[in-house]
Amino acid sequence: MEKRDYYEALEIPRDASADEIKKAYRQKALQYHPDKNPGNKTAEDKFKEATEAYEVLKDPQKRQIYDQYGHQGLSGTGGFGGFGDFAGFDLSDALRAFMNDFGGFGFESIFGESTLRRRRSEPQRGRDLQIKLVLTLEEVAAGVEKSIKVKKLVACDRCDGSGRERGTSEKTCPRCNGSGQQKTVTRSLFGQFVNVSVCPYCNGTGRIIEKPCLECAGNGRIKGQTTIRVKIPPGVSSGNYIPVKNAGDAGPRGGAPGDLLVIIEEKEHAVFTRHDDDLFIEQAINFSQAALGDQIEILALEGKALLKIPPGTQSGKIFRLRGKGIPHLNGYGRGDQLVRVLVITPEKLSPEERELFIHLSKHQKSKPLRTDKSFFEKLRETLGV
Description:
The protein is α+β, with helices and mostly antiparallel strands. The chain has a domain of 111 residues: Urease metallochaperone UreE, N-terminal domain (HSP40/DNAj peptide-binding domain), CATH 2.60.260. It is 27% helix and 26% strand. It is built from eleven helices and 15 strands. The protein has a four-stranded mixed β-sheet with strand order 10-11-15-14. It has a three-stranded mixed β-sheet with strand order 1-9-8. The chain has a two-stranded antiparallel sheet with strand order 2-7. Strand 10 and strand 11 form a beta hairpin. It is elongated. The two termini are 40 Å apart. The relative contact order is 0.10.
């Protein structure tokens, strides 16, 4: 089933502010929450749809990607190798996301205890991690698969991530009676206020380990290192990122692992300068080539290329080689290579060369230099900007 536009799902304009997005989602969540619509599959689907839309649009980076590439940019199978895979976004994910942003502020009185019990029954998820991956321009153009070493928290081998010594069990937290929360009631002239916070005795799990694991001290995790392989598609640029599902820290006491964000950083090239998907290079030619014309071999990203120099070429002239640039990300075709030729004046002349230039100078007349367009104006014309 094709996904609806996120802005349409929340019924907001595309230029909506962060506060407007949050307000629209809160209204949708209250309207379609499963606890207010028990057994209503349509309401459940709308709640998931609204929550998924909110999770994307509240994050400036994800929102920018969505505005530029749509659902494909956020897909784990299409587009840019996955900007954030929502293909497996289910009801439990939606409820967890809802409670992370709005839980603990009196919502238990609206939905009763079922949402809190559902949230409490799920182990805490591990932390998301970030890592920078430096790529050369050649790797960016061709696409590459990289092995990355990641230092992170992994499941404890001694207790298999449970946090307790083998053969022992857990018991209900006596402080919160298994709720995972403690409530503080404050009375004032304006009425009664209830503050709900995480139980400090069980850290919100509602369970107490009788005998913690000696290796991980009951956390279920220890420091470790893993190696992952990441496939980088052609055409990425600095600031793009690829999420790797379940490659972050392991969750405490058997919780699901977080994700890993691989952030691309492009290494500066010694010869080429990148502008979007176009590449720039400067090429020196001599007086004879500029005056008479020539066909020369120049450096291209994937080897060599031929460039035709027409007679009468002026220094600073920019030529465009179609399709010699960087491949377009999430699309067909590629950018161009722009070559700026510079006529080089020789610093030293042999006696024969000096005689030739003297003879040539007698047949040439100097002309005033045209200054109607600067180099940058010519460059903008060439780029079409």
